[in-house]
Amino acid sequence: MKKDILQNASQAIDPERIFATPREIVPIQRATLPQEIVKAIADLIRRGVWRAGDMIPAEKELATQFGVGRSTIREAVKSLAVMGVIESRAGEGSFLRQPSSEALAGAMMWGLLLSERNLDDLLEARILIEVECSSKAAELRGDDVPPRLYRIVEEMRNHFSDYSRFMALDNEFHVLLARSAGNVLYSTMAETIQGLVRIWYSATYDIPGTMDLTIAEHMRIVDAVRDRNELAAKEAMRAHLSRAGSRLKLALG
């Protein structure tokens, strides 16, 4: 198995592009800031100097080309790896990953977690993304989507005493709705937001009536999606997210 994986990986690499040393690489003046290296590498990718699948030069070579220390390069490469831009393959090197929405999701996750206004930012992002997802889901949804959403809501009714399961079903509801919108970026952003929702929103369950209200709000969304009523779906989702945000602020004081 390992041999096959390595063989397939080697076949996907263009030998002429390995360890490319583009003339565009210039020394970085602010050598103490790995962020500058990240920006410089991003610019190389944007301009097509490096492309998906390319093996990037080794740490030592990059340090020489950019005119910085190896520790600076190491930090920059780690940052790009966390964001999903670069992947390391044992015994081979570091490669630029194929374009995907994972980098965007990672950037969103860190930005929302570290922002000084993170709760307000999270609510605003949810409204912008999930309201549009609801509208698109109502427009494009398949025949199986409303029944699946109704089943999730019904299962939520059966788990009032299990906060963890109720939260998981709540997340599942929003993710399924986003996926029904037919846009992979919407779906990925919604999934990322739901990861943040799990961090904070469980606190709202201590507020009496929260679960009943959540289910009623979800039902209005599903009814609109079932009827292919895009405007009603948007309004129902906007109302749900605004009320959920208010409940969260109340729970957190």
Number of strands: 2
Number of helices: 11
Distance between the termini: 54 Å
Q: In CATH, what is the homologous superfamily of the largest domain?
A: GntR ligand-binding domain-like
- Principal-axes geometry comes out as elongated
Low-confidence parts: 1-13, 15-20
Notes on the protein architecture:
This protein is mostly helical. It folds into 2 domains: 2-96, Arc Repressor Mutant, subunit A, CATH 1.10.10; 103-252, Four Helix Bundle (Hemerythrin (Met), subunit A) (Up-down Bundle). Helix content is 66%, strand content 3%. A two-stranded antiparallel ribbon has the order 1-2. The longest helix is centred in the middle third of the chain and has 23 residues, at 118-140.
Descriptive key words:
single chain, 253 residues, mainly alpha, Arc Repressor Mutant, subunit A, Four Helix Bundle (Hemerythrin (Met), subunit A), 2 domains, two-stranded antiparallel ribbon, 2 strands, 3% strand, elongated, disordered N terminus, FadR/GntR family transcriptional regulator, transcription, Tscrpt_reg_HTH_GntR, transcription regulation
List the helices and strands and how they pair.
Elements: H1 2-12, H2 34-46, H3 59-66, H4 70-82, E1 86-89, E2 93-96, H5 102-114, H6 118-140, H7 145-157, H8 163-179, H9 184-200, H10 210-226, H11 230-252
Antiparallel strand pairs: 1-2
Offer a quick outline of the entry.
The protein has 11 helices and 2 strands. With 253 residues, the chain is mostly helical.
